[in-house]
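Much of what follows relies on a compact textual record of a protein's fold. A record is reproduced here so that you can trace the correspondence yourselves:

. . .
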Amino acid sequence: MAAKKQPLTKIFVLDTNVLMHDPSSLSRFAEHDVFLPMITLEELDHNKKGMTEVARNARQVSRYLDEIVTRTQAKMEDGFPLSVNNRSCSGRLFLQMKQMECALPEGMPTSKADNQIIIVVMSLQKKYPRREVILVSKDINMRIKARALGYKAEDYFNDKVLEDTDLLYTGLRELPPDFWELHGKGMESWQEGGHTFYRIKGPLCPSMMINEFVYHEHGNHLQAIVREVEGSTAVLETVKDYTHEKNNVWGITARNREQNFALSVLMNPEVDFVTLLGQAGSGKTLLTLAAGLQQVLESKTYSEIIMTRVTVPVGEDIGFLPGTEEEKMLPWMGALQDNLDVLNKHDDDSGEWGRAATFDMIRSRVKVKSLNFMRGRTFLNKYLIIDEAQNLTPKQMKTLITRAGPGTKVVCLGNIAQIDTPYLTEGSSGITYVVDRFKGWPHGGHITLQKGERSRLADYAAETL
């Protein structure tokens, strides 16, 4: 019997933006070969200077390349094994050693970097007609050009946490109408610290996540959080009702179920990391600031609030604006000012002077920091808010969250439908990454806010425009 023929491996030609987006991308192509055009190396060299995330990534890629090339004794024309950085990667790295000539259609200048990379793809396909040569680029127009010329082109998918963001963990689930019939047999119930606990057993329990919120709208209304999961047994704890005026948080009450769940994790000192996703006007910033002020000024759980956000373009220098770091950041912090105005208006009894004094006290405890200077810092006993977190890459997100010292709570706010950073998508955004990685952690909480509560105009615009 004839031996089964092994399928030929592919050749992936990488655009510079792939390497600068994910420095570890070289070791993500399994058994396939990677080819780097000379113009890619030139562009890496051109982008390596500076303190931006792009410059850091360019330097990181250069170090990887140096390690791959110097640690193996392979000949240049035979390629360098990519297993140096990743044992599961059995492909080889090839570098362009000579000028490649191929005729481009009229009107496409050969001097342009994108077109030079397309020439490399054309030449390789001509040289290896039986192998699949694929251009990998984050640049949509470049992929369109390559496909128009009849060559394969793909986006870089390895950085995507999820292919479909509809599958992203929401932090809450509706229980079916027959939930108590299936899970109520032999149920244990007890009270502790003003909350009711239920130990239930049934088919839904294994799929539950710790700190996931559940609600039952049929018959006996229930809003609870999953505290323990063990096999087919789970412990549910009822959630405090923050929609009631007596449970207001710095004068703010929850207007819907999701806001109630959000305040529950924001006010829980045992939850160190909270992510809130939601459309514009769903109350992410207002709820987070209200919970922060309550825990900084009333219960003294944290010493101060630190708020930061991405200044898009990400990591660009803020030095062209006058003033201190805080004053330079204020133009980006309109949302903070708007929400502080709302929170301060609730203090009607104290009059104008009292409100002014309260506002001064609030401002003294709310610090605004730039992302550019976060490396190497450690925040102790702080309430750290990261706004517009959908514009962060997973690596930047890791840099920020690891700043948290003992007693610090980190809250990430974002709307994945409003990504402004080039080459980031809903599936590869830093906030999508952390929501997926932190689900089920006993000290983490996540809620996707569904409903806008800003105004009827804002809600109608969000739905129809």
